Amino acid sequence: SKVLIEQLVELLEKRHYSNLRPATLAAYRCYWKNDVLPAIGHRRVCDIQRGEIIELLAPIKGPKSNRILQMLKSAFNQAEIWDLRPENSNPCRRIKPQPERMRIRYLTEQELKDLMDACDTPGLTAERWRFTRLIKLLLLTGARLNEIKMARWDWLDEKKAILKIGRA
User: Fold this and answer.
1) 137 in Cβ contact with 148 (< 8 Å)
2) Per residue of the chain (168 residues), what is the pLDDT tens digit?
3) Which end of the chain is more exposed for a tag (fewer CB within 10 A), N or C?
4) Is 71 helix (H, G, I), strand (E, B) or coil?
């Protein structure tokens, strides 16, 4: 197949990217334009080898590198489906993603106030009202979502307004 990487991107846009969330699509377009196409856009899809992908990703650090690897892996899988590459020839296979640091960010006092105010917005549908109560419960207790989901009524002391998480 004589299809170039830049042509593969056009095919992906037409046939494959229609179901992506807008933010994901915007990120993918940026990755293709700024990181991938300048490096390998002129190359044939069937000629790309694992070493070239590793070389392309080497200067890119952290989560961005992993997102690009994920995007390329998907693109080359699609290229196989469209017979632009031989079956099981994805050059991204067996490339390990870079380790990512878990980030913790706390709300500022103003952000917390704004969120609590938003939770008290009048005129919410029943579903949104329940959701806002859940948000407030999580914020006020510091409990994890799964702890609240798994909570049992016998863990609740209504008189003291205390929920004892994990008590058998």
Assistant:
1) yes
2) 799 999 999 999 999 999 999 999 999 999 999 999 999 999 999 999 999 999 999 999 889 999 999 999 999 999 999 999 999 999 999 999 999 888 888 999 999 999 999 999 888 899 999 999 999 989 888 888 888 888 888 888 888 888 887 644
3) C
4) helix
H helices present in 33-160, as ranges = 37-40, 50-57, 62-81, 109-119, 126-141, 145-150
Query: Are the C-beta atoms of residues 3 and 85 closer than 8 Å to each other?
Result: no
Element (H, E) at 156: strand 156-157
DSSP conformational letter for 163: E
Give the separation between CA 74 and CA 79, rounded to whole angstroms. Answer: 9
133 residue type, one letter = R
DSSP-derived secondary structure letter, 60: -
The span from the CA of 75 to the CA of 65, in Å, is 15
Tokens 């002129």 appear where?
A: 42
Give the whole-angstrom CA distance, residue 75 versus residue 70.
9
Q: Judge whether 72 and 49 are in contact, CB under 8 Å.
A: no
